[in-house]
Amino acid sequence: MARSAGDPDTLVRVRRCPDLSVDALDALVRRLPTVERSRVAALLRREDRLASALGWVLMQDLTAGRGAPLRRGPDGRPRTDPPLDVSMSHSGGWVAAALSAAGRVGIDLETVRPVSPSLVRRCLSPPELSWVDEVPAGPAWHHRFFRLWTAKEAFLKATGAGLGQDPRTVGVDCSGAAPALLGELAGSWTLTSTSPARDVLVTVCTERPA
Predict the structure, then answer these.
(1) CB atoms within 10 A of CB 64
(2) Per-residue buried b or exposed e for 140-149, using 16+ beta carbons within 10 Å of the residue's own CB
(3) 27, 35 Cβ separation under 8 angstroms
(4) In this structure, what is the dihedral angle of CA atoms 194, 198, 200, 204, given to the nearest 10 degrees?
């Protein structure tokens, strides 16, 4: 079901990937445009084909009736016509899609899982590392990392920078009830997080109207 991501101009859909038969997956893929079918067919893992197809269908459902065609941009990112923007993400058998009617949007979904300390150091700034290290190594430590990471990734997807930008340059504060961007970014973007199931985190980053 579509729901607001903290503001009336943003809709979000989050779904767990169903256990589809071969025929049912083929039927889902047939709902995609020809170019997208070819892209999905090239994916090696069945779970990636399912998640990618379902994510595109969710975005199609969000844009339906709005007169804004859904397509891939030159950078591979899903696109539609301004002022609408779309984004999708999938991880661990879950898929999320977002639509904003007010500006750029990015969404990141992650299943909480163990990650190496070296990876965490490559992603977080010193203040963010200190916050993560306030809890012992284990599930809570990884949960804190992914709270920060989903916020950073959602912002980087919204701006189109992706992982071409060092994530440590995107300051995030997750010590409160809701995540917040720091510095000059704070006034231009809104972060909204939710957890649709245990150890599943979703963060949406939406651009605030000027």
Answers:
(1) 10
(2) ebbebbbbbb
(3) no
(4) 0
